[in-house]
Amino acid sequence: MAASIIAVVIFVMMFVLLVLEKIERHIVTMACGILTVIFVFIVCMKDLSIAWEVISLGSFAQLHFWYSSGEAAASVGINWETICFILGMMIMVEGMAASGFFRWLCMLLAKSVNYRPAPIFIIFMILSAVLSMFIDSITVIMFLAAVTAELSRLLKISPVSMILAEVFCANLGGSATMCGDPPNIIIGTSLGYSFVDFVTNTGIMALISIIVIIPYFYFILGRKLKAGQGVDTASFPAPASAIKNKKDFIISCVIFLLAVVLLVTHAATGLTVSTIGIAIALLTLLCAGKNAPELLKKVDYKTVFFFIGLFMAVAGLEYTGILEILAGAIEAVSGGNNVLMIIIIVLGSAIASAFVDNIPFAATMIPVIRTLAAAQGIALPTLAWALSMGTDIGGSATPIGASANVVGTAIAAKNGYPIGWGEYCKVQAPATVIVIAISIVFMIFYYL
Amino acid sequence: MEKQVIITIGRETGSGGLEVARNLGEKLGITVYDKNIFDGIGEKFDIDTANLEKFDETPRKRLVTRRVGAYSNSPEEQVVELQREFLKSRAEAGESFIILGRAGIKALLDFPCLLIRVFITADDEFKIERVQQQADFSRLQASNYIYWMDNRRRNYHNQFCHVKWGDPASYDIIIKSNKLGLEGSADMLADYVRRRMAQD
Q1: Contact state of B68 with A403 under an 8 Å Cβ cutoff
Q2: What domain count does chain B have?
Q3: How many CA atoms lie within 13 A of A257 on its CB side?
Q4: pTM (two decimals)
Q5: Nearest chain A Cα distance for residue B113, angstroms
Q6: What is the domain extent for residue B58?
Q7: Contact status of A137 with chain B (Cβ, < 8 Å)
Q8: Residue numbers in B near A415 (CB within 8 A)
Q9: How high is the pLDDT of residue B80?
Q10: Spatial distance between the Cα atoms of A66 and A64, rounded to a whole number of angstroms
Q11: Which end of chain B has fewer beta carbons closer than 10 Å to its terminal beta carbon, N or C?
C-alpha cells in the first residue's frame, strides 16, 4: 500500500513539475525516476530484483533487443530500444541538418511551384506529413517553419496559415508510422509492433485523414494566400545555396534513404529499431569523420534523460498495480462494450494529450491497455492503434499539446507573428475533431 | 562617450523612471531604449514587430505556454529573447545606452563594460499624484493601478532575471525620485555615472 501511495505521489509530482516548467523536464523525470526506484522498489517493496528489472540494463544482452524473431517482446521499465532508436535518429538528423538537406528540399519544392503561396501551402503540408513519417515531427517543423517564415517574408505574407497547417500535418504524418511520433515509438517497442504494423493500421487512418484535411486547410486558410506587391522571385535564394557541402549532402541523403529502407523492411529483416538506430548513428558518425565529435555535441541528450526518467517513474505505477486500477475503471465505464472502450481510449488520450505532454501519457497508458486487452478479450493491437491516434492527433488541438506545435508557434512568434490560443484552436481544434472522428469510425468498422 | 557605459534602470510605477531616464540620456548624450527598442528589433531582425509590442514587459503565462528545448511558444519570452539579442548586439557594437526595464540586467550582466544598475522608487503620495495626472484616475484607482502594475513588473522581472526586482542587492544605486525631483534625480545620476567612469 505504501509503495502504491509513494508511486502515485511521485508520478503526480512529476506531472505537475512538467507542466509548471520551473525545472528542466529531464531533471524532473530523472529525479522522479530515481526516487521511484529508491523509495518504491528498494525501501517499500524491498526488492532489488525489481529495481534491476526496471533499470533494464540486461536488455542489451538479450537477442531480441538486436534481432526480433517475430515474437513480440513486451518491455517493462526503461525501454532502451526506444532510447537507442531516438538517439540514433537524432544523430542522423544532425548530420542531415549540417549538410543543408532540409532547407534545400523546402526551397526546391517552393521553386518548383514558382513560389506561388497557395501551391506552396499545399506542397509544404504534404512535405510535412511525409517527412514526419520518418523523422521526428519536432525536427521537421524546426526546419520547415523556419523556411516558411523566410519565404513568407520574401513573399510579403504572414507565415501563420502555413505554419499552422504544417504543424497539423506533421502530427498527422507522425501518427502514420512507428518512428514518426515519440508515443508511437514507445507503443511499438513496448508492445513489439513493426513499422509495417503501424503503416497498415494508423497509416491507413492517417492517409484517409490527410485526404480530408488538406482541402480543409486549403479552404480555411490556403486559398486566401497571395504574394504581396513588388515581389521579385528571381532574387530569391537558389535551392542549391542551401547545400553547405556537396559530399556531406549526398552522404546524408544516402543515410536517410538507408534508414527509411531499414525501417520499412525491419519486420522482414528481423532488425529491431534499436539496431537500426545504432547502425544509422554509427554510419553517420563514421561518415562525419573529424566532425563526428561536433555532431555528438549537438545531440539533445536532455531528451534521452527525459525518457529514461519517465520510464522509471511509470514503472512505479505499473509494478504497484495502480495502472491496473485505472484499467479497471475504464473497464467499468465501458461495461465490457468494445466500441465504447475504443471511444474512451481515443477520446481520453486525445483530450489528455491536448493539454499535457503526450509522451508521458502514452508511456503510462501502455500497461493500462495491456491489462484491458487481457481482461476484456479485445485485441491488444486495436487498443494500441486507438492510443496511438488519440495521443498523436489529440496533441494537435492546442498550442501546448504536442512538441511540434510549440516549435512551430515559437518560430512564428520569433518572426513577429505570435499565435494566441484563440487563433490556433479556431483552426486546429476542428481539424483534430475531424481526424479523431475518422479514426473512431475506421476502428469501429475495421476492427470490431 | 569615451568609455562604454550601459545603464539599466528599473522603476516603480509613477516614480517618473521614464522621465529620469530620458533626462539622464540627454545629459550623458546616449540613447535611451524604452518602447522604441521595437524599432531597432524590427530593423535588425527584419521583422514586423507590431504584433509583438503588446507582450512587452509582460510575464509569461506558464500554464498556457510550453517550452521544447530552445523553443518557447510564449510570445512574452520571445519578446524578451529578441530584446536581449538586440541589446547584446548594440553593446557589442560599442554603443553606450540606457535600457529602461525589460529585464535588461540579465542581458548585459556578463558584458565587459561599465554596467550601472539603477532602481527608481518614490514615496506613495508622489506616485499616486503622478498617475492621477497622467490618467483620469481617482486616488483609489491610481493606488490600485500602481499596485497592479508593480506586481506585474515584479513577476515579469523575477521570471526573466536571476536577481529580484527592487531588491537593494540587485542594484548599484536606488533613488527616491521625489526627493530631488525628476530633473535633480537625473543630475545626481549623471554625476554618479561620471564618477564611476572616472574611477573605472
Answers
A1: yes
A2: 1
A3: 7
A4: 0.87
A5: 28
A6: 5-199
A7: no
A8: 47
A9: 92
A10: 5
A11: C
